[in-house]
Amino acid sequence: MGTISQIEVYRLISEARARGERVVAATVAHTRGSTPQRRGAKMLFFEGGAVAGTVGGGCIEAEVWAEARAALRSGVCALHKFSLTADEASEEGMVCGGTMEIFIDVWGSEQKVTNE
Question: 1 in a domain, yes or no?
Fold first, then answer.
């Protein structure tokens, strides 16, 4: 998976919504320290299991994927904070050691917003 342009993000969301499919957009809202992606990077998760884009790969992306699946079920939008310490990064063979805040935004059906 690679980065995705803004126009492609909204085209894919529009197509999914036309099919009546719920979509989760994960957007990197803030970073601090060494992180795999910059602010604004997006990843889409579709009800059918497809994905597009990236928020960085590795451990953080796996955690975001889990939060996105939960959001697809619940309809709850929230800002999530993820930390990848230098120790965790070295265990995974990565060079990151920063923190990321990622907004999980649910498109479709009734939406709820929470602060975590």
Answer: no
- Give me the pLDDT at residue 111, please: 55
How many folded domains does the chain comprise? 1
**pLDDT value of residue 56:** 84
- Indicate the residue type of 103: F
Residue 93: phi and psi, rounded to 5, are 75, 25
DSSP one-letter code for 94: -
> For position 60, what pLDDT does the model report?
83
Joined tokens for residue 24: 């989760």
Structural domain of residue 43, as residue ranges? 6-115
> Helix %, strand %, coil % for the chain, to 5?
30, 35, 35
Q: How far apart are CA 43 and CA 62, in angstroms?
A: 12
Taking the CA atoms of residue 106, residue 110, residue 115 and residue 116 in that order, the dihedral angle to the nearest 10 degrees is -70
Residues paired with residue 101 on neighbouring β-strands, in sequence order: 30, 81
Look at the chain and count its residues.
116
Positions of the chain with pLDDT lower than 50, given as ranges = none
Nearest to 15 by CA among 108, 111, 102: 108
